[in-house]
Amino acid sequence: MATIPNIIRVGHGVFYVTDLEASRRFYVDLLGLNVLHESASALYLRGNEDREWTLKLELAPEAGIKHLAYRVAGEGDLEALVALAEAEGLPWRWESEQDRPKLLRLQDPFGTPVAFYAESVKYPWLLQRYDLHRGPGLQRIDHVNVISPWVQDTLRWYTQRLAFRLTEYTEDDEGRIWAAWVHRRGGVHDLALTNGTGPRLHHFAYWMPDSASILRACDILAGAMQTDAIERGPGRHGISNAFFLYLRDPDGHRIELYTSDYLTVDPDFEPIRWHLNDPRRQTLWGARTPKSWFLEGSRLEAFGGGWVELQDSELQGLPQHVI
């Protein structure tokens, strides 16, 4: 029987950006992420609670996503992932990154570039270095959301092969799943899957201290004459109960500022079902959602270079409550 790897949590994302100085202005000067390492071609950033870098911005000719990464418990879990990749014919290789000497890079069966690591250099956290906090106070990495034309199949693979646990899902009258939220660490999600043309990254999220810090982000962007970066919100999701704000960076990558969800650590936690046509699932309260939020996302890097080919979903349609 195959060993199921022990994945701890979402670990980092690597974004390709086309203008590193514009990205620094957005992520560091306005949002207040902390620079842990930098070079002429890359920035390694973290939130105030993160003890390691959680977002790398890498200069490239085209914007996109290099990979999304998860932390595993130990070396044996990396070996279990290699065995899984071999058994299922998934492409994989060993790579390294700043502070992460051994990184397993593979492509999941649905085209998403993912990486796994067990070892990372740790740095003193800045949570109580209030004298160093800037901007609205992004605290820690929270989750990633991937647009997929195969949500139900992807959900099955991540829960059966990687032991992710389902917390909430959206289903239609025919029993087809349009979106799902799964976790490893006991929050609402480390990974969300939403229906659409893909695979693409929908968003990358940071946890915020409270709802007031999200409102402060809006004020900071307004003061800098950067309100066009606000795509959606502030508001509150029905799914996850989170208070949210969605932003678009200079390359169009979507960032969510997120807070006030709930714990899911009990082994008998029952996943919450939402009907597809329930308008409260996306927005418990707040303005109508712009169409761009449903239709746009960041391209994902293919294993051999270039971009993963996009495919349309058989599930078509948008909620009625959109701009």
Q: Low-confidence stretches at least 5 residues in length (pLDDT < 50)?
A: none
Element string (H = helix, E = strand): EHEEEEHEEEEHEEEEHEEEEH
Report the principal-axis shape.
Answer: globular
Look at the structure and give the CATH class of the largest domain.
Answer: Alpha Beta
Helix/strand/pairing class, anyone?
alpha/beta
Q: Which percent band covers the strand fraction?
A: 25-35%
- Overall mean confidence score, pLDDT: 96
Number of domains: 2
Determine the number of helices (DSSP H or I, runs of at least 4 residues). Answer: 5
CATH superfamily of the largest domain: 2,3-Dihydroxybiphenyl 1,2-Dioxygenase, domain 1
- Give the biggest beta sheet: 9 strands, mixed
Radius of gyration: 19 Å
Give the number of DSSP strands. Answer: 17
CATH topology of the largest domain: 2,3-Dihydroxybiphenyl 1,2-Dioxygenase, domain 1
Percent range of helical residues? 10-25%
**Alpha-carbon distance between the two ends:** 50 Å
Sheet with the most strands: spatial strand order? 14-15-16-13-9-12-11-10-17
EC number: 1.13.11.39
Keywords: Aromatic hydrocarbons catabolism, Dioxygenase, Iron, Metal-binding, Oxidoreductase
Cofactor: Fe(2+)
GO molecular function, one term: biphenyl-2,3-diol 1,2-dioxygenase activity
Overview in brief:
With 323 residues, the protein is α/β, with parallel strands linked by helices. It has helices spanning 20-30, 75-88, 151-161, 211-223, 291-295, and strands at 7-17, 34-38, 42-46, 55-59, 64-72, 92-97, 100-107, 113-117, 140-148, 165-171, 177-183, 191-195, 200-207, 230-236, 243-248, 254-259, 272-275.
